[in-house]
Amino acid sequence: MSASGATWLVVVILAVLLVGVLLAFAVRNRRSDSPAEPFAAEPEDRPIAAVVANPTKVEPGTQELVTGLCVELGWAEPLWLETTVDDPGTGQARKAVEQGVDVVMACGGDGTVRSVAEALAGTGVAMGLLPAGTGNLLARTLGTPLEMAAAARVALTGDDRAIDIGRVRVDGDTDERVFLVMAGTGFDAEVMGNTPEALKARVGPMAYVVSGLRAMRGRRTRVTIRLDDGEELRRRTRTVLVGNSGTLLGGLVLMPEAEVDDGVLDIVNLAPKGIPGWVAVAARVISRRRRGHPRVEHWTAREVVVRAEDPQASQIDGDPIGDVTEMVVRVDAGALVVRVAEGSPAAEALPAT
How many domains, the chain? Predict the structure, then answer.
């Protein structure tokens, strides 16, 4: 066959194929009573979220609610990974990152949020907040809705912002633990450790008030506090708190100048004597003043070392970590990406990634 004959043969074959395609579309359109639908993204092309959920905190129907919202917004059905006693969220979040998810939602209390953040810090994968605990302190700080459907929508459609995290070592350990809100020793840790879960389930945040009243009569202890490379400060104290955020329950602000993205930690030392001293401290907290009571001291630093004369009850983000003598805390600036509501005050305050 000549070259010109081969060319014409190719043209004929292409023409036949083109006619076949046109006929197929015509038949399809005749069989359909509705206009042709736009092409839908294949499942593998859709964004996908993972939910790391604490089953003891999650209300019935939450999985169905989040899944339905994902589908409504054009996402794939989410991975649903439940925490366990042995792994409160870190392993599940790491698994989600390995599977290439676009956002990991922490569904539970402050402990679940902290565990998920420990896995996500430094990865660039965003964390969404689905508040289901008693405190939900980071959610309150960032203005995340406390209603589940609204919070899930923010996690799927909000803005990504970088915030600081705190890293803690205790009693010479080389392993660091992550916190997002506060770490501390003394009174606050006693309250957290002595508040029964059953009481929190029954009365919510008021459970901490009950435990706090019981702990107020405790004794002060001697500590040394070193800020960055400065000299050691010697104090008698009831509690030393190191905060990435200063927000407490009920909108109270313990550290008025604390910001989650300022690259420093805020430290407060409370040293009241007896009930009258606590009343004066409470008045200072309610007034949101940084100064004004001799038993309340504030500092800022990138690293702080607190050493106690005797082992003290300690906590990170409300989770008791036992009695410790030394706590070394440092800031890891901008290490965590969090999904916040588009156009919210928190979104405006945080730097874009």
Answer: 2
